[in-house]
Specification:
The chain is an alpha+beta fold. It is 15% helix and 25% strand. The longest helix has 20 residues.
C-alpha cells in the first residue's frame, strides 16, 4: 500500500475510533462494518479507489498527485539539463518585464539581457525579512479529490513586483513557467494587481514559493520556484516560474480559461466519504467517516442523509435541501501531522497556528482539510443511497453558493448501501 495512504489511514483510524468509542456499544459494533478497519484486500474496490487518492493532513512531497503538463514534463530532465534550463536553485532566475502588448513603463525591468534578472540568491535575501508560511490544500478545479496538503513557504510576490518600479498604470500581472520553450505547451495564469499587493479577508499573501513542509521544493512540485496563491485552485499556482509580465490589460490570460473554466473562482467547501460499509444488518447503526475541503467560505457543518431508494424525491429539489440531514462530528486536529515534517511540529511562525503551542488557532482551518465521522441510526432491510454535504460558515449548503462545475467541483456525493439479513 502507498506509504502516504498508510499514514493517512492510521491517523484517520485513530481519530474515528475515538469518536465511535464515545458512541457506546452501538459505535463499537458499527466499527466492524467499516471497510477502513478491515484488511486492504477486503475493501470494496470502489472505496479503495477513493482511498488511493488521499493522504495524511500534510502530504509528503513525493505522494502528491501529479497533473503536470508538458512533453517532456520539465521535472523529468536530468540534472545537467535542468541546470542548462535554469531549473535548479543555483541557475534559476526570474524576468520581470513590461507586457509587450500593453506596456506600463517599468523603470527597472529585471531582465537576463541587462544582467538584472532576479535570482534565487536575491530571493533568499528577501526571505531573511519577508518569508511567510501557510497551510493550503492543492486541488484541481476539475478534480474532486485533493492533490495534496502542505505548509508552503515563500516570499510575497509583491516584494519582487516593487523591485521593477512600475508606473501606476499597472492592472494585472501575467506569469508563466518553463514549458520546453514551446509556445503551444506554455501554461500561464494571471492575477489582479490588487490581490498581489493586498491580502483581503485575512488571507495569506501570494508567494514565490521555494519550500514545502520545511523542505526545498522538489522538481515535481515546481522547483526551484513556483507561485502559490492561498485561496486558488492549482492552475493559478504555476510551477517552474520563469517570467512575470506587468500589464495595463485588465483581462486574464489563463490557460484554463480556454476550456471555459472560471479562472477567478476560489476554493469551494465540500465533503466526501472515506469509509462507508457496503452492507449492514437491519437495525445496525451505520458508521460513516470522510474528509472535507474547507474552502474560502469556511466550514460550519458536515451532514449525512441516508435515503431509501424506493422513496421518490421532488424533482424541483435537486440539491436535497428539504432532506432530513444529520450533523456529523468534525474531528479534532490530528496528533500526527504527516508530510515528513520535522519533529512532527508545524514550523513557527505559520499562518493559522499559535507560535507558542504549535496548535491551530481555529479548527477546521480554512483552505485546508478536515476529517469527520457520524454514527447513523439502524435501518430496515432494503437498498439505500447515502449522501453527505457541507454547510459553510455563511450557512450555505453544498453545492451552493457556486454549484457550477467549471468554477470547481462540489457535487453532492452518493454512495450505495445495502441493509440485508
Amino acid at each position: 500500500m502507498n506509504p502516504a495512504l498508510t499514514d493517512f489511514l492510521a491517523e484517520h483510524t485513530n481519530l474515528t475510533r475515538r469518536y465511535f468509542l464515545r458512541c457506546g456499544t452501538a459505535g463499537v459494533a458499527a466499527l466492524g462494518a467499516l471497510p477502513i478497519f478491515a484488511n486492504a484486500g477486503e475493501r470494496d474496490p470502489a472505496l479503495q479507489k477513493v482511498l488511493d487518492g488521499l493522504e495524511t493532513w500534510l502530504t509528503k512531497q513525493d505522494a502528491f498527485r501529479d497533473v503536470s503538463r508538458g512533453n517532456p514534463k520539465p521535472h523529468s530532465f536530468e540534472v545537467e539539463k535542468k541546470k542548462e534550463l535554469g531549473l535548479t536553485r543555483d541557475t534559476w532566475s526570474l524576468e520581470v518585464l513590461d507586457d509587450p502588448d500593453d506596456k506600463v513603463r517599468l523603470r527597472n525591468p529585471l531582465t537576463k539581457e541587462k544582467g538584472t534578472a532576479f535570482t534565487f540568491k536575491d530571493l533568499m535575501k528577501l526571505a531573511e525579512k519577508h518569508a511567510v508560511r501557510f497551510p493550503k490544500v492543492m486541488t484541481c478545479l476539475n478534480i474532486g479529490c485533493p492533490l495534496g496538503m502542505g505548509i508552503w513557504e515563500g516570499v510575497p510576490l509583491r516584494e519582487v513586483f516593487w523591485l521593477a518600479k512600475p508606473s501606476p498604470a499597472v492592472r494585472r500581472v501575467h506569469y508563466y513557467g518553463y514549458h520546453n520553450d514551446d509556445p503551444k505547451q506554455m501554461f500561464r495564469s494571471s492575477l489582479s494587481i490588487g490581490r498581489i499587493l493586498e491580502d483581503p479577508y485575512d488571507l495569506p499573501p501570494v508567494i514565490l514559493c521555494y519550500k514545502l513542509n520545511g523542505e526545498w521544493l522538489t522538481p515535481e512540485r515546481g522547483a526551484p520556484v513556483r507561485v502559490v496563491v492561498p485561496e486558488a485552485y492549482g492552475f493559478k499556482n504555476i510551477k517552474w516560474l520563469s517570467h512575470l509580465f506587468l500589464s495595463h490589460r485588465w483581462q486574464s490570460n489563463d490557460t484554463y480559461g480556454d476550456a471555459k473554466n472560471d479562472v477567478d473562482s476560489p476554493l469551494k467547501t465540500f465533503c466526501e466519504t472515506l469509509s462507508v460499509p457496503a452492507a449492514v444488518k437491519p437495525d445496525q447503526p451505520v458508521a460513516v467517516t470522510g474528509y472535507a475541503q474547507v474552502g474560502i467560505s469556511g466550514l460550519k457543518k458536515v451532514q449525512v442523509w441516508i435515503q431509501n431508494n424506493d422513496e421518490e424525491w421532488p424533482a424541483d429539489d435537486k440539491y436535497f435541501t428539504k432532506a432530513p440531514w444529520r450533523d456529523a462530528e468534525i474531528l479534532p486536529p490530528p496528533k500526527n501531522w504527516g508530510g515528513d515534517i520535522a519533529d512532527n511540529q508545524v514550523p513557527s511562525p505559520t499562518y493559522g497556528f499559535d507560535p507558542k503551542t504549535g496548535q491551530p488557532k481555529t479548527w477546521p482551518i480554512r483552505l485546508a482539510k478536515a476529517h469527520w465521522a457520524i454514527l447513523m441510526p439502524g435501518l430496515p432491510a432494503g437498498k439505500y443511497t447515502l449522501r453527505c454535504r457541507t454547510v459553510d460558515a455563511n450557512d450555505k449548503a453544498q453545492p451552493m453558493p457556486r454549484p457550477f462545475r467549471k468554477s470547481g467541483r462540489a457535487a453532492i456525493q452518493e454512495v450505495g448501501l445495502k441493509v440485508e439479513v
